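Priority: medium. Attachment 1 of 2:
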């Protein structure tokens, strides 16, 4: 229908411009005599007639193709101008041409009403086409509504469901609002301090914000892991990952300077043995990003045997060093709780993503572009060096202000453990040269 609509209004435009403007205006031009004016008129009207036919045929074809009944009431408003066009083409224009010819030859033909008929027909054509066009316009916008309903019906039919039930449900559905959609009320009741120190809520909320950001990162990484490689998508997602990590790094001051020092150091003892160490989202990112062998530090590499299984890797994984005394075999409560809750899940995920981690997929890329390599390096550095360093600085700010080296809630040898130099955690080790690896965590 849009073609018919466009052609209708173009048709109106042409007829108005030529018949109601050009036809009489040209005689006012200096030097245009009656024979010259009639000569131009004959030329222009014959051209207009051909253009009108183009529009008329285009509209007719569009109506036929749209499977609407040609003889509908509205289409009569098209059929009437079409009939008038036929009359003009085969009767009026030839007759007017003949009169023009007589004028040009200097003869004076007898008076006739042919001009009045022509003007009358033009007027009727314009009025009919205008109403026809307006109705077409309304129908076109209604059609898109119909189309939407048809599509909805198709969607539910394909699911083997009754579309009507869903449409009725839509009729009853309450309009959505911000607080329900974003779950604001639930979200804002998730802060449950265990002491009366005001800043404890800041501590909880910033951890929650971080967990949400880590979840956003998992959301992006999973898509790269489970979907076929496409460089443009990887670049886009890595930019997102770098942006999220930069936000976490940039905002860590909320922890470092945003809590009262004494209050924090008092309320934190109530939180023992809980520790950020127990963030499973942090560990999920590691498992999705890299092969387990990259999560084993220098000491671990010496301990672990040949062809380690997934369980062996988890036995020697770097983060166990935060809570396991490898000489006595004793585990901290922080580590015990964490393993009891999440170890099976982490091992399951590691088995599932074996050969499919970001690093595995990157290693399979033929001729990986420098741009992509740089984005991967940037992410590796932000997540495994820059964030750990701001985190460590904050720990030092609260736990080691005057070199007193307080015990952390998770009970680790945190000064050593948290340093990237010690952890040696890298997602894409092949992207770093020997020198960079030796100096890992120095900046
Ligand atoms: C005052 C602020 C903070 C201090 C003093 C602090 C201190 C520590 C310490 C000492 C550890 C080592 C484990 C332990 O012994 O408990 C640790 C681990 C950890 N913390 Fe924090 N932390 C702070 C804020 C945060 C925040 C906001 C997060 C965000 C979720 C976080 C996430 C982690 C993670 C993921 C680990 C494990 C790191 C790893 O294994 O590499 N921490 N933190």
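Attachment 2 of 2:
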């Amino acid at each position: 229908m849009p073609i018919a609509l466009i052609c209708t209004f173009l048709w109106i435009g042409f007829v108005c411009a030529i018949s109601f403007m050009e036809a009489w205006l040209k005689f006012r031009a200096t030097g245009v005599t009656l024979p010259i004016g009639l000569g131009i008129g004959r030329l222009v009207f014959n051209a207009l007639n051909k253009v009108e036919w183009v529009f008329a045929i285009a509209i007719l074809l569009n109506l036929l193709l749209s499977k609407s009944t040609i003889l509908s009431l509205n289409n009569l408003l098209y059929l009437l101008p079409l009939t008038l066009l036929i009359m003009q083409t085969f009767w009026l224009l030839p007759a007017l041409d003949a009169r023009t010819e007589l004028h040009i030859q200097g003869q004076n033909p007898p008076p006739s009403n042919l001009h009045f008929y022509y003007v009358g027909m033009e007027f009727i054509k314009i009025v009919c086409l205008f109403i026809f066009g307006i109705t077409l316009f309304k129908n076109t916008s209604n059609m898109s509504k119909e189309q939407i309903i048809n599509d909805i019906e198709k969607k539910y039919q394909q699911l083997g469901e009754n579309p009507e039930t869903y449409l009725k449900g839509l009729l009853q559905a309450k309009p959505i609002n911000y607080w329900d959609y974003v779950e604001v009320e639930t979200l804002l009741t998730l802060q449950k301090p265990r002491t009366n120190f005001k800043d404890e809520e800041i501590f909880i909320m910033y951890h929650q914000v971080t967990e949400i950001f880590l979840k956003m990162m998992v959301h992006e990484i999973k898509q790269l892991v489970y979907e076929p490689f496409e460089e443009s998508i990887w670049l886009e997602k890595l930019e997102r990952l770098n942006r999220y990590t930069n936000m976490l790094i940039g905002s860590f001051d909320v922890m470092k300077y945003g809590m009262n020092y004494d209050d924090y150091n008092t309320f934190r003892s109530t939180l023992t043995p809980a520790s950020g160490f127990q963030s499973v989202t942090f560990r999920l990112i590691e498992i999705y990003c890299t092969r387990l062998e990259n999560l084993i530090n220098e000491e671990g590499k010496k301990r672990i045997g040949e062809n380690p299984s997934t369980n062996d890797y988890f036995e020697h994984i770097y983060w166990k060093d935060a809570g396991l005394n490898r000489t006595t075999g004793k585990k901290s409560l922080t580590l015990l709780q964490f393993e009891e809750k999440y170890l099976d899940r982490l091992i399951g995920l590691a088995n599932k993503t074996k050969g499919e981690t970001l690093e595995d997929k990157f290693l399979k890329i033929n001729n990986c572009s420098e741009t992509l390599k740089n984005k991967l390096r940037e992410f590796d550095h932000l997540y495994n060096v820059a964030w750990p360093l701001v985190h460590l600085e904050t720990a030092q700010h609260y736990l080691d202000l005057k070199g007193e080296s307080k015990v952390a809630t998770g009970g680790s040898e945190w000064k050593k453990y948290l340093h990237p130099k010690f952890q040696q955690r890298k997602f894409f080790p092949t992207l770093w040269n020997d020198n960079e690896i030796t100096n890992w965590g120095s900046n």
